[in-house]
Design goal:
It comes from Aspergillus pseudoustus. This is NAD-dependent epimerase/dehydratase domain-containing protein. An eight-stranded mixed sheet has the order 1-4-3-2-5-6-9-14, sandwiched between helices. Strands 15-12-17 form a three-stranded mixed sheet. It has a two-stranded antiparallel ribbon with strand order 7-8. The two termini are 40 Å apart. By secondary structure, it is of the alpha/beta class. The longest helix is centred in the middle third of the chain and has 21 residues. It is 35% helix and 18% strand.
Length: 429
């Protein structure tokens, strides 16, 4: 059923019917910031916007903040199915605090509480951001970053159609709508899960973008000192979530091949952790996430008695699974770098994939020990069996992003643990 989209912005005018969740009380937010921030001036109405779909989730909210810090006006679309309305307030506070310290004007941010799969709501939104005084009419939305996918591996195994309907069918409908409005700069939230069982080639093996391609290509392998052919396809994807990301990438690659006016970057995430150093943003989904850091948080905050370790017999140094853990703020900056590269025409071809990771792995046991050191609290653990869809090791080769996007990670595993504990100390404990 279509519904009238609800809009909210940071211009100082709002109405409670716009969103289902009430704003965070000002007194609670005043406890977080040290001084009152001046209200920012509205940005030029003719300035372009970036549309951030799913922009109140964990990665989406941090990316929204980084975009504001970089001077972009943004429009966030989120249906609040796995996020909260007050995250919008927190993104704005963090952005205003940054701009106040930098002596710059805070860009404009708007929130549309709607499902991105609601065609009427999305058409209304896109029409609202189309210029009437230009011929032909031009959208003020210059780029789109898409985060609104379901992402729980175990849930995807139980409910595959749910994932294909939202992650694949929803993407097709969105791309068709954007095409109608001539919005063709698109940053796609993909995943290292597209590499499937290639992740387990060994703890010293890193995954390169050419390990999963959508058309045959050649590349130079510096380790072997030779040019190799990358074969189209993927190897041993272990769950419907990963397949939905692979299918989505393939669809986007086909769209770009058929219409070279598109520019699409698919960013393959590894394991985002931590939170913004301000302590204003963190990972706080409505539904309990099964990945390591949220599970550890439930133990640290007393909501769970122990942390389950899924497999202690992997082919790794300590038997626990190895992952490439990337600070979420570094990941968010990667989206800004990708957006800038796309808009500046610095991308090879019209469709390009990029790994966003640190290039090094940490075991689950190592992460737990680092969290214990930072928090000065013990985290009881219990070894349990491996989960369906898991792999033993998954580490990125991130050289392409460094060379072509001018991006690299800056924060360590310990930094992520410190920032997480800061957020929990301010918000939860």
């Amino acid at each position: 059923m279509s519904s009238e989209p609800a809009f909210l912005d940071n211009s100082g005018t709002s109405s409670p019917q716009f969103c289902s969740d009430p704003p965070t009380p000002a007194t609670e937010l005043d406890d977080i910031i040290e001084h009152e921030l001046p209200a920012s001036e509205d940005s030029d109405d003719n300035k372009e916007y970036i549309l951030v779909i799913g922009g109140l989730g964990f990665i989406g909210s941090h990316t929204s903040l980084e975009l504001l810090k970089s001077g972009y006006n943004i429009v966030i679309v989120d249906n609040l199915s796995n996020s909260f309305r007050d995250v919008f307030d927190r993104v704005l506070l963090a952005a205003k605090l940054y701009c106040s310290r930098a002596g710059t004007r805070c860009p404009k941010a708007e929130l549309c509480c709607a499902d991105y799969r609601d065609p009427e709501a999305m058409k209304t939104l896109l029409t609202k951001h189309t210029t009437d005084n230009a011929t032909p009419r031009r959208s003020k939305i210059s780029g789109v970053i898409h985060f609104a996918a379901y992402k729980e591996v175990a849930d995807s195994i139980k409910h595959p159609l749910k994932y294909y309907q939202n992650n694949v069918q929803g993407l097709i409908e969105l791309i068709a709508l954007l095409d109608e409005h001539n919005i063709k700069s698109f940053i796609f939230s993909s995943s290292a899960s597209v590499y499937g069982t290639l992740s387990s080639r060994g703890i010293y093996s890193r995954l390169r973008e050419e390990d999963c391609v959508h058309e045959q290509e050649s590349y130079f392998d510096p380790a072997a000192g030779v040019h190799l052919d990358a074969q189209q396809g993927c190897t041993g994807i272990t769950n419907p979530y990963g397949r939905s990301k692979f299918f989505a990438e393939a669809i986007l690659a086909d769209v770009c091949k058929s219409d070279p006016s598109w520019t699409v970057l698919a960013l393959r995430y590894f394991n985002p952790i931590g939170c913004d150093p301000s302590g204003l943003l963190g990972e706080d989904p409505r539904e309990a996430a099964s990945n390591l850091f949220p599970a550890a948080v439930r133990v640290l905050t007393g909501r769970a008695p122990e942390l389950s370790i899924y497999g202690t017999d992997w082919d790794t140094t300590d038997g626990t699974a190895v992952r490439d853990f990337i600070h979420v703020s570094d990941l968010a900056r990667g989206h800004g770098a990708a957006l800038a590269a796309a808009q500046d025409g610095r991308i090879r071809g019209t469709f390009r994939t990029f790994n966003l990771g640190t290039g090094s792995g940490h075991s689950v046991d190592e992460v737990v020990r680092t969290l214990e050191e930072v928090t000065q609290r013990g985290i009881p653990t219990r070894a349990v069996g491996r989960r369906d869809g898991d792999v033993g090791s998954c580490v990125a080769m991130a050289d392409r992003a460094v060379v072509e996007l001018g991006w690299k990670t800056e924060r360590s595993l310990r930094d992520a643990c410190v920032d997480l504990w800061n957020y929990l100390s301010l918000e939860r404990l």
